[in-house]
Amino acid sequence: MWFPTVFYEWGDYYSGTYARIGGGLGAGIATFSGNIALTSTPDNEVISQSQGRTKLKPALGLIAELSYKHWSLALSAAGPGYDSDDFVSNVEDFSLNFGYRLMF
């Protein structure tokens, strides 16, 4: 579940020429079953988990977007994480998008 993103924009969205920066907060729960392999350790230690469920965790998302005559370049990033007594997992996601926006 993601909460709305707030942003600040310079320029005119409808003319297609603008710059935008923003951020958002989110929260999520993940479920998993089977074994989790810790491949970051030298001996590839495996921890047995069955029908596991993580706690509700907060996440942060950031976005920067430039647009010129409806051609846009956007960089977005998100950073939720998970940690327990057995292991730590930091998930980071970066996305770079380039495209043309049709207004109708």
Descriptive account of the structure:
- The chain has no helices and 9 strands.
- A hairpin with a 4-residue loop joins strand 1 and strand 2.
- It has a domain at about 1-25 and about 55-100.
- It has strands spanning about 1-10, 15-30, 30-35, 45-55, 55-70, 70-80, 80-85, 90, 95-100.
- The radius of gyration is 19 Å and the shape is elongated.
- The strands form 3 sheets. It has a 5-stranded antiparallel β-sheet with strand order 1-2-5-6-9, with no helix packed on it.
Give me some keywords for this one.
mainly beta; elongated; two-stranded antiparallel sheet; 104 residues; 0% helix; five-stranded antiparallel β-sheet
The level of helicity is under 10%
Fraction of residues in β-strands: over 45%
What does the largest sheet look like?
Answer: 5 strands, antiparallel
β-strand number: 9
Q: What order do the helices and strands follow?
A: EEEEEEEEE
The average pLDDT score comes to 75
Q: What is the terminal separation in angstroms?
A: 29 Å
What radius of gyration results from the CA coordinates?
Answer: 19 Å
Number of helices: 0
**Largest sheet, spatial ordering of strands:** 1-2-5-6-9
Tell me, what's the shape? elongated
Q: Classify the secondary structure makeup into a structural class.
A: mainly beta
Low-confidence stretches: none
